[in-house]
From TrEMBL:
It comes from the Bacteria. Residues 24-279 form the EAL domain. The chain holds residues 397 to 689 of 689 of the full protein. This is GGDEF-domain containing protein.
């Protein structure tokens, strides 16, 4: 018993631990139910060019509204889902919903650049991931050129043995774009920052925040931007929250941004409105005619 093993501190700790384990077990069960009900939602956050104002892409981000606990952030439930082997199922719900929504925008003539989805290593390692992806695009009627996959550096490194590299080449050859997410936080060798493998780098938020006040971040973002430009890879800064950060990014010449200063991640209806408000007249007419028909 706790007492035998050494008194009050231990039993206090073990009660904390028990509560934590109970919470995780409950969360696990709730994730299982949410998968069965497909109750994960997708929010969308636009990425824009600072020079042209044009939309270059829009990122799909999973959201989970728990019945009793309210919104649970991906940072909280994804690690649990990964550990329990649920991430491939959750990923497929998100990817299907994101691609279906993008296909609807496309049919309505609403410009969104590309729909970007996050894909983890466990999702990619599923033997039929590429078949699932192509099947989903085809059923939805969306061209592969309108899709982008966001992958973190460690997944790119974990390549030849697991067959992920070959799978990614196959997917990219079909026209899907590949992006290195959270760039600068992992340990990708520069050999992977290669225009034959990667279409875009996403500079991690930690280098973008307070960029105006922080000399080191300014130097890092400038160096990454110049590296990417030299190689012919596009670049987007993540998590730009303020006007001052946008000004610094523009001064450095980092063209594309994503962050609260442009738009928060939005539910489907809001995202559609946001895109439509920025779409050319042609799209608006098309949508209007659709609603009149
Ligand atoms: P990420 O792919 O790097 O996504 C960017 C995160 O930054 C998102 O957090 C977004 O809401 C947040 N963000 C955007 N702009 C700002 C800003 O200006 N300031 C701040 N402070 N944050 C900003 P979110 O939605 O909580 O997602 C966290 C992470 O969870 C994602 O990081 C991604 O790694 C993972 N994730 C989210 N959805 C999915 C998914 O469908 N599948 C997979 N495999 N992973 C996902
Ligand atoms: Mg991402
Ligand atoms: Mg990121
Ligand atoms: Mg991340």
């Amino acid at each position: 018993s706790a007492k035998k093993l050494g008194g009050g501190n231990f039993s206090f700790f073990s009660e904390e631990l028990r509560r934590e384990l109970d919470y995780r077990k409950q969360l696990e069960q709730d994730i299982r139910t949410a998968i069965a009900n497909k109750s994960f939602e997708v929010y969308f956050q636009p990425q824009v060019s600072l020079t042209s104002g044009k939309i270059s892409g829009i990122e799909a981000l999973v959201r989970w509204k728990h019945e009793t606990r309210g919104m649970i952030s991906p940072g909280e439930f994804i690690p649990v889902a990964e550990k329990c082997g649920f991430m491939p199922d959750i990923g497929r719900i998100v990817i299907s919903k994101a691609i279906e929504e993008a296909a609807e925008w496309d049919r309505a003539g609403i410009d969104f650049g590309r729909i970007a989805v996050n894909v983890s290593g466990t999702e990619l390692r599923e033997p039929d991931f590429d078949a699932f992806l192509f099947g989903t695009l085809e059923r939805a009627g969306l061209a592969p050129q309108k899709l982008s996959l966001e992958i973190v550096e460690s997944v790119i490194l974990d390549d030849e043995k697991t067959g992920i590299a070959a799978k990614l080449r196959h997917i990219r050859a079909a026209g899907v774009h590949l992006e290195l997410d959270d760039f600068g936080t992992g340990y990708a060798s520069l050999s992977h920052v290669n225009p034959n493998e990667i279409d875009r780098l996403k500079i991690d938020r930690r280098f973008v925040q307070n960029i105006n006040e922080n000399g080191d971040n300014t130097k890092i973002v400038r160096a990454i931007t110049e590296l990417a430009r030299g190689l012919g890879i596009s670049i987007v800064a993540e998590g730009a929250e303020t006007e001052a950060e946008l000004d610094s990014l523009m001064a450095i010449g980092c063209d594309q941004v994503q962050g609260y200063s442009i738009a928060f991640p939005m539910p489907q209806d809001k995202a559609r409105e946001w895109l439509l408000a920025r779409s050319p007249k042609k799209a608006k007419l098309k949508v209007l005619r659709g609603s009149l028909a």
